[in-house]
Amino acid sequence: QVQLVESGGGLVQAGGSLRLSCAASGRTFSSYVMGWFRQAPGKEREFVTSISVSGGSTYYTDSVKGRFTISRDNAKNTVYLQMNSLKREDTAVYYCAAAHSGQNYNFWGQGTQVTVSS
Q: pLDDT digit string (tens) for 9-20?
């Protein structure tokens, strides 16, 4: 079991930056693949990015490549999402999630709102 708490969301102007954090409880954080998802109003939740257990592999959805960076600090049980060059279409509730390698994400945080204004 792992519990996830996101923070760092807020209101930012287009072109600005935000860094989201996701703090995990438990002693097994380093055994989980971590991901970030988002859900915009009226849309389904979508995958944004993920990072492997070691942090050596990352994956991004095309719309955020080159703008977002995922990282993790296993000593601090925390995963980060650095978001640069934000666009209005990045407005959404952002969720972090955890999964054992090869399995579905089955632990989710409560989400943090990111709003990008023009």
A: 999 999 999 999
